[in-house]
Structure formats: C-alpha cells, structure tokens
Amino acid sequence: MVLQEALSLPDFITRPRPPMLSVIVPTYNEAVNLASLINRLSQVLSGISWEVIFADDNSPDGTHQRAKDIARVDPRVRCLRRVGRRGLAGACIDGILSSSAPYVAVMDGDLQHDEEVLLRMLHTLEEGDADIVVGTRYRDGGSALGLAGHRSAISRFATLLTTSLLSVPVSDPMSGFFMVRRDRFEEVAPELSHDGFKILLDLLASARNLRVAEEPYLFRARERGESKFDLRASLEFLGLLAAKATGDFIEPRFVPYAFVGTLGLVVHFLVLKTALQAAGLSFEAAQSVATLVAMIANFFTNNVLTYKDLRIRGWRILKGMAIFCAIGATGFVANIGVAHWLYGGNHIWWMAGAAGALIGAVWNYAMSSRLVWRLR
Ligand code: GDD
Ligand code: MN
C-alpha cells in the first residue's frame, strides 16, 4: 500500500474496503429515480461495504450520464452503459458479471422493490444455508399491492402457470428482486438468456440444485417514470416458459412468431372477406390479395415484435420482405404436402390440417430466423 507507507499510517485507516455486496440495478429511462434510490441504499446499507451498479441500456433520458455524474463524487456508485442492445435480463447478467463482490443483488431502479429487506437477505446468505434469496410478494406478509389492477391478475396467472409447468421452488418466480452468491451465479451465467424480463425464472430453471430461501416484501407502486413491461415482454416470458418446460426443445422466439402468425390469419380472413364482398373480386384473386397482405403484415409485425433486437431498417426491408414471402410460399407448399399425405393415410381432417399448419409454421420460423433476421 504505497499511500499508507508514504504517510506511515496503519493500513486499516485508508485501505478502501472492497464491496461485500453489489446491488445491480437495470435501468431504462429511470433518471428521475436514481438519486432517491442511492439515498435509500446508503441508509439501509450503512453498516456494510456495498456498491450499486446501474446497468443502463443507453437510456434516451440520460440515466447513464446522471449515474456517472454521481459516480464521480461517490465511489460506491458505478454505471455500465450498454449500447446497441436492449433487455432487462441481459443488463442484469452483464451487471452481475462486472462485480467481484461475494454477494450480488438485483433490484429495480424505480423504487418498487423494498430496499429494507436487503440486509436480511444478506444475513441469510452469510449463514450459508442458501445460495439465493428471492424477494417474494406472494408469501408471509409479502404483497403485490403496487401492481395496477390488470397487471396483478396477469402476474398471478403467470405465477400459477409457471409453478405448474416448471418445478421451481419459489412462491414468486417472476420476482425481479433477489440476492445470490456470485460464485453460484457465475457457474450458470453462460446458459442464461439475455432477452426479456425473467432473469430469476431462467436462473432457477437453468441452475438445478440452487438452495433457495425467500424473503417477503411489499411491492410498492411506481411513482415516477413508466413501466417497460409490454406485449413483447409477455410473449418473451411465454417463450421462456415453453423453452424451459420442453428442456430447451422449443426456441423462446417461436412463441412470439406463432402469435404473429395467428394475427396474420385474422388479417387474412378480414382482407379475404372485404375483397370478396366489398370489392367483388373472384375467389382466386381475393385469396391471392389476402395472402400477400397477410404476409406483408406478418413481416412488419415480426420485424418490430419477434425480432425487435435484429430489426431490419431502410432499403434492406425490401429484400427482407421478398425473402420472407418466398419462405412463406414454400412453407405453404410443405403445409399442403404434409396435410395431404396425412389425410390420405388416416382421413382425420383436423389432425392432417393441424400437422400441415404446424410444419408450415416451423418451416417459416426456422427459415426466417436463418435467412431474414440473422444475428449479425
Ligand atoms: N437496462 C435495462 N434494459 N433495464 C430495463 C429494461 C431494458 O430493456 N427494461 C426495463 N428495465 C428496468 C427498468 O428501468 C426498471 O428499473 C426495471 O428494469 C423494472 O422495469 P419495469 O418496467 O419497472 O418493470 P415492472 O415494474 O413492470 O416489472 C417488475 O415487476 C415484475 C413483477 O411483476 C420487474 O421487477 C419484473 O422483473 C418483475 O417480473
Ligand atoms: Mn417497475
């Protein structure tokens, strides 16, 4: 310790204490909440050495600048600015992996999670009987009162669905609030999905044999800023569930893709009906128009929903759309072929129809993922 030698001080006086706990806070447009959060953390964690790491996805509201401004005067604050990618889970993973503390917590940046329980979580881990402590809203005095009416119903349904499909040993597998031993996290980190919201669920499903404890807390209402939980986040969640329930046989992205396909069917019938009744086209002409419109609609919906992270822009849209339609046409041929063959064998119309549609969907998905929206 050069500094201590130069000043001939006993080394405990100036030696900085490395953090015992890193609190990882994923942020997207949370600039208005940063200062209150840091303030609350420094109150409840005053007895231990800790740091907070904001994992920010280049928020347009300047959350990362604000965080770094504070970091310049408070060494307990760090900010990881991620550019060119979006995702709550990925931000948490990168944040945790940038820590060297023995314990890491993940907590929302909008003050909805109760910082008061952090110390209890830490003590539970330090006692050594658990690898992870999950903040729960659904047990022993925990509460999800802060969720808006319809979100509360969705959350309860999703929790029920998850606990019945997967064997996860927690009452609140959707929780975004937990503390984990970093060594155990590092073991599974390479297997975790970076998309979507459900990092905890992924962690519990990927790392078998984690010893889990729970800590009830009150989920508060968001006071400032907006929730980023949307249709895409819900579809991603269903995708993750499907993947984990089938031992990663189904790719998570297939779920939003199939959802868009179903919407396309609705578009198809609406256009077909209009073209036949209002425009008076022949059936063949109307069916062709409907097919084309539905395929183009599906292309654009997939571009902003299913493949938002790989979104095609500018003139490349034309090329992508052409390939997408060509894939759709060949998928259609495969669909009819399989259905025809099955129907010839067993004459069960609905089974032949469903199998044909499934083959078509899988083909379209597999080819679109490889030829249209490629990982660059
Ligand atoms: N870096 C980054 N990137 N952060 C994000 C992103 C993103 O794409 N999306 C959201 N966040 C941040 C928000 O800024 C906030 O700090 C935190 O993640 C939670 O996002 P909210 O948008 O506030 O989510 P919520 O309140 O609707 O959902 C919370 O409760 C759910 C339980 O119903 C989260 O904790 C979820 O994880 C949890 O499942
Ligand atoms: Mn929130």
Structural overview:
The chain has 376 residues and is of the alpha/beta class. The chain has 2 domains: 2-245, Spore Coat Polysaccharide Biosynthesis Protein SpsA, Chain A (Alpha-Beta Complex), CATH 3.90.550.10; 254-372. 53% of the residues lie in helices and 10% in strands. The protein has 14 helices and 7 strands. The protein has a 7-stranded mixed β-sheet with strand order 3-2-1-4-6-5-7. β1 (21-27), α3 (34-44) and β2 (50-56) form a beta-alpha-beta unit. The longest helix has 31 residues, at 316-346. The radius of gyration is 25 Å and the shape is elongated. The mean pLDDT is 90. The structure holds guanosine-5'-diphosphate-alpha-D-mannose and manganese (II) ion. Residues 108, 110, 112, 222, 227 line the site of manganese (II) ion (MN). Residues 26-28, 30, 55-57, 86-88, 91, 108-110, 112, 155, 174, 176, 197, 227-229 line the site of guanosine-5'-diphosphate-alpha-D-mannose (GDD).
